[in-house]
Amino acid sequence: MQVRERGMRGSAGRRLCGWWRSRTAAARRDTGMSTTEYAMGTIAAAAFAAVLYKVLTSGTVSKALEAVIGKALDAPF
């Protein structure tokens, strides 16, 4: 019975090692982004920057930032 259990663990281990080797080999083959992935990443980053700019330059956020900076500069030393 113990021999059979070891054999099952061994075959499962070999399958797992085989799967892991195939995944790492696939990851090495598919390194880097393609041109379309770069384009989509650039568009997403630009859109995020535009939204962030609009939020930070809005009146409410601008006043809140000014208040925080004002309190920090008026702090006693």
Distance between termini? 77 Å
What would you call the shape?
Answer: elongated
Supply the helix-strand structural class.
Answer: mainly alpha
Low-confidence stretches: 1-8
**Can you give the mean pLDDT?**
78
Q: Evaluate the radius of gyration.
A: 28 Å
Structure annotation, total helices: 3
Order of helices and strands: HHH
Q: Give a quick account of the main beta sheet: strands, pairing sense, barrel closure.
A: none
Share of helix, binned: over 70%
Proportion of residues in extended strands: under 5%
Strand runs, count = 0
Could you explain the architecture of this structure?
It is a single chain. The chain has three helices and no strands. The protein is mainly alpha-helical and 77 residues long. The N terminus is likely disordered.
Would you spell out the secondary-structure blueprint of this structure?
Elements: H1 2-29, H2 35-56, H3 59-73
Pick out its properties.
mainly alpha; 84% helix; 0% strand; disordered N terminus
How would you sum up this structure in a few lines?
This protein has 77 residues and is mainly alpha-helical. It has three helices and no strands.
